[in-house]
Write a structure and sequence with these properties.
The complex is a heterodimer of chains A (111) and B (114). The termini of chain A are far apart. With 111 residues, chain A is mostly beta strands. Chain A is globular, with a radius of gyration of 13 Å. Chain A contains no helices and 11 strands. In chain A, strand 9 and strand 10 form a beta hairpin. Chain A is 0% helix and 56% strand. Chain B is built from no helices and 11 strands. In chain B, strand 5 and strand 6 form a beta hairpin. Chain B starts with a strand and ends with a strand. The chains are: A mainly beta (111), B mainly beta (114). The interface between A and B is medium-sized, with 21 and 24 residues.
């Protein structure tokens, strides 16, 4: 079983739609959680950290469920510019600054 | 100017050749990392360094070596390249402040071994 699992998609949604991605992780000792965004053939960039209480940044909302070991990303009012691959990332106790990446979920927003 | 730069951006080399990928950063971060990305496998950590005198193996270090020449420079070498080292390679940095684990990536080096 992969340490971090994501549905690869693609998710094809019209502009303005709301879309949600989930990610599951296998190590219950996981400490920190993030969503990174990666455009085609470009470097990953941090989109947002995920906090235990859930957090929001504009149109983006991240949630963490430690009991079920999953995190989610909700994107409201999708824009064409949101088209990218979204990487779920976790770090584990005792491995400070070492990240484990999911393989990513591809989002395509269309007119 | 980019905070994390990588050279070369693209490289095609032959099996058995030695190749070095270079990474430089102007962010003043102590921690640097090398990853490779393959389709369907996500990013995997090759080596990381928490300061100039510190080198640590990641999950897939076999066939690779690194050198941390200065705080700002971290090089990855393939001593004898093989075709399954064809991949997209990323360098990343992070600081050791309270925001641990937030990493900043370079633009990547696309390496093809024929």
């Amino acid at each position: 079983r992969k340490e971090v699992e994501q549905d690869p998609g693609p998710f094809n949604v019209p502009e303005g739609a709301t879309v949600a991605f989930n990610c599951t992780y296998s190590n219950s000792a996981s400490q920190s959680f993030f969503w990174y965004r990666q455009d085609c053939r470009k470097e990953p960039k941090l989109l947002m950290s995920v906090y235990s209480s859930g957090n929001e940044d504009g149109r983006f909302t991240a949630q963490l469920n430690r009991a079920s070991q999953y995190i989610s990303l909700l994107i409201r009012d999708s824009k064409l510019s949101d088209s990218a691959t979204y990487l779920c990332v976790v770090s584990y106790t005792g491995t400070a600054s070492k990240l484990t990446f999911g393989t990513g979920t591809r989002l395509q927003v269309t007119l | 100017d980019a905070d994390v730069t990588q050279t070369p951006r693209n490289r095609i080399t032959k099996t058995g050749k030695r190749i070095m990928l270079e990474c430089s950063q102007t962010k003043g971060h102590d921690r640097m990392y090398w990853y490779r990305q393959d389709p369907g496998l996500g990013l995997r950590l090759i080596y990381y360094s928490f300061d100039v005198k510190d080198i640590n193996k990641g999950e897939i270090s076999d066939g690779y070596s690194v050198s941390r020449q200065a705080q700002a420079k971290f090089s990855l070498s393939l001593e004898s390249a093989i075709p399954n080292q064809t991949a997209l390679y990323f360098c990343a940095t992070s600081d050791n402040s309270g925001r641990l684990n937030e990493q900043y990536f370079g633009p990547g080096t696309r390496l093809t071994v024929t």
